[in-house]
Amino acid sequence: MKNIKKYNYIGIFSLLLVTLFSCVADDELVQVDPNLNTEASFWKTDADFLKGTNAIYGSMHIDGTYMRSTPLLLDLKDDATRSNSPWPPMANVGRFNTSLADDAIYGWAYRDFYQGIYRANQVFEYIEGVEFEDAGLKNRILGQAHFLRGLYLFHLVNFFKNVPVPLDNSTLIHEQKTEEEGWKQIIIDMKAATDLLPISYSNVSGLDAGQIGRATKGAALAYLGKAYLFTKDFPNARDAFKKVIGLNYSLVSNYRDNFTDKNENNSESIFEVQFSREAGGVDLSFGSNPTSGWGQTSARAITYGPRDFGFTDVQPTFALYNDFLIEKTVNDEIDPRLDATMFYNKPGGVMLYGQDFATFYASNANDLNDLFCRKYQNSDGGQVNEYDWRSGINERIMRYADVLLMYAEALNETGTTSEAYTYIQEVRDRVNLPDLAVTKPNMTKEQMRDQIAHERFLEFALEGHRFDDIRRWGWLQDSAKLAWLKSRDAEFETYSNGREYFPIPQSEMDNNPLVNDQNDGY
What is the CA radius of gyration of the chain? Predict the structure, then answer.
């Protein structure tokens, strides 16, 4: 009897188990620790979404983006820079000899810009249906997510040409798109950001009130115009830049104030990457997964630093130096942007890191007669060198001067060359250069194109714009222009067709079956 009861109990228990497990779905068996945040449980309050938006900005402060790699990828291929770095992945960028076998630097940028896009897509995924206490904040968060996704995609398209364009995180594998499709999405994102973002945060209420450094309507309009300019939609570019000009930005009187930590987020700054020696920890932001000890500092200063003060991986070319000497100011002086851009053995002396240039390099004739970067260096006496790797100088990636010269270019390309003079001269006036309408009146469209190229070369040297300009103007496919570039910078001797873009990282080709087309030349 006892055995029968025992078997009955076993049978009933087994039946209960069958019933239990036949009624429970697999996902119901996965229990989340209520003490831990998950992606799905995090996004609930206004403050949560602001933190999530801050994380999108955080992707600017890591190794592949503006902490180190992106300035190098932007600068090294142009005729304003050269590299004798002992590290092949860096030196080979400017020589158009990037290797598929080693994706250091360019592969990190690919990885980390997509990290930023993933974070932006999280905002879009979870914000729908959430009722905010501050409706205005919701719009500003959406606007920043659109802007930052568009900005990160802007770099990916410019670096890699045909790339995936993820608009959601439902899968980590996304189809490779054409360059045209990439630009189309950039324009969509920047348009959306333009409609949602405020002119500034000084007049908003909410958790982000008064927070300087966030994306604004002016930043979105400027990048919208730039996307139109790069896709040769000159009428729309002109109209976007005109709107920026109407937002009351102005050039700072001292050109060098754009490249130190003394006058950041100034009247000329439309968008800059915020770096600080005081924010966060003291660890360097290597890798793409942040830790609590990471600081928010830049490695640009040490990477570009003059000999014995930094690594000297990047140096100005003598072509850049010589171009600064082409035209004197109205007072018959050298263009002051030369001294703000580079260190050289200047007659009368020049100080760097508390040292006299000629005295410091007296024992080394090569260094004494060489050129070193000054923009974005902590060289005015506050630091003795850059060897702690931790620069707090903000990276000004969109300045009002850029908008003025891009607007002049759009005016020239839409048949109003005479109007372009006004906006070019505004940039020239700051450094006391003669009136271009007097020295070079009645230029043709073609002459004005070359003049704008010259103006941009001097104004934005070492700021990551020159090679983007060279590529979009088609100079590498123009035999005369390419020969001219080779005469100025020997690194162009090793250029071959297709190498204006970086390769799609081999790891992406191996792991994403929807990415099949490698860029030409690789």
Answer: 27
Could you tell me how many residues make up the chain?
A: 522
Residue at token pair 């990037």:
98
Q: Where are the alpha helices (DSSP H) in 249-356?
A: 300-304, 318-324, 337-341
Q: How far apart are CA 121 and CA 429, in angstroms?
A: 43
Task: Provide the residue type at 53 as one letter.
Answer: T
Instruction: Write the CB contacts of 418 (distance below 8 Å, at least 6 apart in sequence).
Output: 442
Structure-block tokens of residue 3:
């055995």
Give residue-wise pLDDT tens across range 61-119.
999 999 999 999 999 999 999 999 999 999 999 999 999 999 999 999 999 999 999 99
Element (H, E) at 457: helix 445-459
Q: Quick check: pTM over 0.90? A: yes
CA distance linking residue 186 with residue 280, whole number of Å: 31
- Can you list the positions of beta strands (E) in 268-422? 269-273, 276-280, 295-296, 315-316, 342-343, 351-352, 355-356, 372-373, 395-399
End-to-end CA distance of the chain: 81
Which of these, 211, 121, 131, 122, lies nearest to 164 by C-alpha position? 121
Please, what is the average pLDDT of the chain?
93
Say which residues have a Cβ less than 8 Å from residue 217's Cβ, sequence separation at least 6: 193, 194, 197, 198, 199, 247
What's the CA angle centered on 334, arms 330 and 336, to 5 degrees?
A: 95
HEC-encoded secondary structure of 119-180 = HHHHHHHHHCCCCCCCHHHHHHHHHHHHHHHHHHHHHHHHHHCCCECCCCCCCCCCCECCHH
DSSP string, 206-268: STTTT-TTS--HHHHHHHHHHHHHHTT-HHHHHHHHHHHHTT-----SSGGGGSSSSS-S-TT
Element (H, E) at 296: strand 295-296
Among 106-110, 169-173, 269-273, 423-427, the minimum mean pLDDT is found in 169-173
User: Are the C-beta atoms of residues 316 and 371 closer than 8 Å to each other?
Assistant: yes
Pairwise CA distance, residues 343 & 232, whole Å: 36
Identify the pLDDT of residue 17. Answer: 34
Burial zone of 358 (CB within 10 Å; 0-12 exposed, 13-18 middle, 19+ buried): middle
The tokens for 365 are 């004739």
- Per the CB < 8 A criterion, the answer to whether 97 and 77 are in contact is no
45 CB neighbour count, 10 Å cutoff: 13
Would the pLDDT of 447 be above 50? Answer: yes
Tokens matching residue 494: 């090793």
Residue 361: closest CA among 337, 379, 343: 343
CATH class label, 40-276+398-517: mainly alpha
Q: Cα separation of 155 and 405, whole Å?
A: 20
Collapse the DSSP code of 200 into the 3-class scheme (helix H, G, I; strand E, B; otherwise coil) and give the result: coil
